[in-house]
C-alpha cells in the first residue's frame, strides 16, 4: 500500500465516520415519530434518490458480475443500517457501535497474515470488552443482539465494497448499491407503516440523515476501500465507538463511564497501530 494511497484513504475513512455517527444522532431523534424502520427507509431511500440524480449511472452498460456485486453490496448496506437502527432504539449509541464493531474486528482477525495485525485486533477487542456493562441488568439484551447482528452485515459491507470497487466506478457502485438497498427495505417499511406518517419537517430531517449517514460516508468509504486492504480498513473503523460516543454526548446527552472511555482509548490505539504499521513487512 503506497504512502499516497494512505494519505487519501485514511482521512476519507475518518471523515466518513464523523458523518455517519453525527447522522445517527440525528436519526435517533426521529425514532419517537417514525421508529427505526421508518428512519432507515428515509435514510436509504433519499440517499438513493440523491445519488442517482447526481451520478446518473449508465445501467445499460453494467455486466452481470457488476449487477451481482452491486446487489450484494446493497444487501449489506440495507441490513447493516436497518438492524443497527433497531439496536440504537434500545441501547445507547456508543454501546451499539462498539458491539457492532465485533463484525469488522472478526473480519480483520480472519484476514490477518502477521502477528502484529492480531495484536492490534486483540487490543480493539479488549476495548469492546471494557465498554460492555456486564453488571448492568438494565441493558436490553435484544438491543445488544441486534448490534452484534448488524456487525455481521458490516463485515459483509466491507468485503463486498472491496470487491465491487475492483469492477465498477465508485459513483456507479455506491449509487447502484443504495438502489438495491432501497428495494430491500421498502417491504419492511410498508409492513411497519410508520413511513406513511412522515411530515414535511420529518422529511427534511430525514434528508439530513440521508446526506450525512449514507450518501456522503458511503462515497468516502468507497474511496478508502479502494485504497486500503480490507483488514486495515476493518481495524481502522475501530474509531467508530469514539465518534459515536462524542456524537451521543453532543447531540443526545449520553454520557460514558471512566471504564468506557478507557475502552475507547484501546480501540483508538488499535486504529493508530494498524495505520502506522500497515506498510511493515
TrEMBL record:
Keyword terms: Membrane, Transmembrane, Transmembrane helix
InterPro entries linked: AA-Vitamin_Transporters, EamA_dom, EmrE-like
UniProt-annotated location(s): Membrane
This protein's record includes keyword Thylakoid: no
Transmembrane residue ranges: 34-55, 67-87, 93-111, 118-135, 141-160, 172-191, 203-225, 232-252, 258-277
SUPFAM superfamilies xref list: Multidrug resistance efflux transporter EmrE
Signal peptide, first to last residue: none
Primary location recorded for the protein, binned into one broad class: membrane
Lipid bilayer topology: Multi-pass membrane protein
PROSITE patterns: PROKAR_LIPOPROTEIN (PS51257)
One GO CC annotation: membrane
Keyword Transmembrane helix: yes
Occurrences of domain EamA (ranges): 143-274
PANTHER family in alphabetical order: EAMA DOMAIN-CONTAINING PROTEIN, INNER MEMBRANE TRANSPORTER
Family: Belongs to the EamA transporter family.
Designated name of the protein: Threonine transporter RhtB
Species of the source: Sphingobacterium paucimobilis HER1398
Amino acid at each position: 500500500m503506497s504512502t499516497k494511497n494512505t494519505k487519501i484513504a485514511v482521512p476519507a475513512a475518518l471523515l466518513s465516520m464523523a458523518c455517519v455517527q453525527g447522522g445517527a444522532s440525528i436519526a435517533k431523534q426521529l425514532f419517537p415519530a417514525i421508529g427505526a424502520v421508518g428512519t432507515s427507509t428515509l435514510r436509504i431511500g433519499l440517499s438513493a434518490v440523491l445519488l442517482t440524480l447526481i451520478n446518473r449511472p449508465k445501467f445499460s452498460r453494467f455486466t452481470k458480475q457488476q449487477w451481482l456485486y452491486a446487489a450484494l453490496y446493497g444487501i449489506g448496506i440495507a441490513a447493516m443500517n436497518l438492524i443497527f437502527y433497531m439496536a440504537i432504539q434500545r441501547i445507547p449509541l456508543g454501546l451499539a457501535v462498539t458491539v457492532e464493531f465485533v463484525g469488522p474486528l472478526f473480519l480483520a482477525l480472519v484476514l490477518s497474515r502477521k502477528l502484529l495485525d492480531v495484536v492490534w485486533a486483540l487490543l480493539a477487542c479488549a476495548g469492546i470488552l471494557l465498554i460492555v456493562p456486564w453488571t448492568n441488568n438494565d441493558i436490553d439484551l435484544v438491543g445488544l443482539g441486534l448490534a452484534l447482528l448488524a456487525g455481521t452485515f458490516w463485515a459483509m459491507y466491507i468485503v463486498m465494497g472491496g470487491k465491487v470497487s475492483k469492477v465498477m466506478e465508485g459513483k456507479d457502485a455506491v449509487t447502484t448499491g443504495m438502489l438495491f438497498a432501497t428495494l430491500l427495505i421498502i417491504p419492511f417499511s410498508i409492513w411497519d407503516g410508520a413511513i406513511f406518517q412522515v411530515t414535511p419537517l420529518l422529511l427534511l430531517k430525514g434528508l439530513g440523515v440521508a446526506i450525512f449517514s449514507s450518501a456522503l460516508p458511503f462515497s468516502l468509504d468507497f474511496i478508502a476501500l479502494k485504497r486500503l486492504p480490507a483488514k486495515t480498513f476493518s481495524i481502522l473503523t475501530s474509531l467508530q465507538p469514539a465518534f459515536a460516543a462524542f456524537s451521543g454526548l453532543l447531540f443526545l446527552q449520553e454520557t460514558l463511564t471512566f471504564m468506557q472511555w478507557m475502552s475507547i482509548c484501546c480501540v483508538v490505539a488499535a486504529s493508530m497501530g494498524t495505520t502506522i504499521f500497515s506498510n511493515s513487512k
